[in-house]
User: Fold these one by one.
Assistant:
Number 1:
Amino acid sequence: MHKRVTYSSVWLPYLLVLPQVAITLVFFIWPAGQALYQSVLRQDAFGLRTEFVGLENFIDLFQSDRYLDVFLNTILFSAATTFSAMGFALLLAVMADRVIKGASVYKTLLIWPYAVAPAIAGVLMWFLFNPTIGFAAWALGGVGVEWNHYTNGTQAFILVVIAAAWKQVSYNFVFFLAGLQAIPRSLIEAAAIDGAGPGKRFWTIIFPLLSPTTFFLLVVNVVYSFFETFGIIHATTEGGPGGATEILVYKVYKDGFVGLDLGGSAAQSVVLMAIVIALTVIQFRYVERKVQY
């Protein structure tokens, strides 16, 4: 039986949700509306003259080979970051779920990196992989890999993926570990009695039962890789070399705040927002069908 909550005042429920509604309006609806409005305008660098140009900013975007290259970079970066962060976090969660001695210390150490700001994560990786002073670059040189992300676009791309995935692993780890601990041990023990090995038990019992957690993290990680990795790229490569690590959110900043193309930058932000909304809808429309609640 469900207990229905009643309030002494008719206005009390609305007052309780008012702070969240206000935050949504101020920090999402209003900026999104401003971006949509500015995307159909063309302004000079000082904002002294404004001209309505309709969809010209969007047409210029999709006629630009450079923008299409950045678009492809973003898709590859998002896919690589999402699957790397989720895959490694799942592996760590499975290992942590089996640890007996020192389990709390082990789990705490794995969670700590989430407290690191994206820009700090980028700086850490910059130091580790610096071709002159970096330990990781030195270790790679010892096995015959000449690392220099300043001149090698592929290596720079790998570097920002590593930094972005490392920053997000802790977040994914917490949810995967909670999901693993919620699975009844009786199911796993029954499968073991039936002769199923560790690999078969994981893929036929554990992983399907983790599908709600996996789906939630998939949505969160895609949004993270599109929007929250600006600080990592800015601190690590600044989009270089030759734009090899430039993604859509960084191009919005570069064109708007550096190039002072306010209309074009606003159009890019609208496209970026539409892409993320479309990806989220596709995930809920098609991927969620495979989720077992």
Number 2:
Amino acid sequence: MKYWFFALFLLVSISFSAQTINQFDDNGKRHGIWKKNFDGTKVLRYEGQFNHGKEIGTFNFYKNIRNKAVLTASKVFNESSTTANVTFYTSKGKVISEGKMDGKTYIGTWKYYHSNSDKLMTIEHYNNNGNLEGERLVYYDNGQMAEKQNYINGKLNGESFWYSVKNGVLKHFQYENGELHGISRYYTPRGDLKAEGRYKRDKKHGVWKYYENGKLINEKDFTPKSKYKIKKAP
């Protein structure tokens, strides 16, 4: 008799559990706890909770690695908006990057980390349209800055710098609306000037100077030649 009651309780529990997962509300929207496997497998693909069609709380997403579910991303959804705080992971559970998304669009501040440590590698900012906006910084794994750039609505604008691991400037460019435009300079790792000149709409323009050991060794004029010959006065 005890066995019969236990079997009945187990059957009811399993039936109830099955009914509370992957359900729809009266309007056909997902509601409650949802779990999905990769097609044709028993390997979990994602799990999370819906409130009448809207994701709420934490959703976890997995990769199928040798028939095992390995966490690859987690999203913590905001109940009053369509945004979520997102974290991406390596297959070993290390954080790769973290930031905010609106649907599939990156927004706000995003941080990326070096693969061999927890140290910050890149920090960048996105506007509400998913375009880079403002300063973008890249760091070596020793914490020294490697790149510094500025964006306006997804396009490079203003000064951009590239640094050596010892904090020496390697390149200094000027951008306008995503194109090289203005004075640019190249340096050796020791900090000596290698070349300098001007870009005009992504093309070298005017006289460029080239140096070796601090001395000018060559000049080259990139000024476009006129299509029309200048006529001499009779």
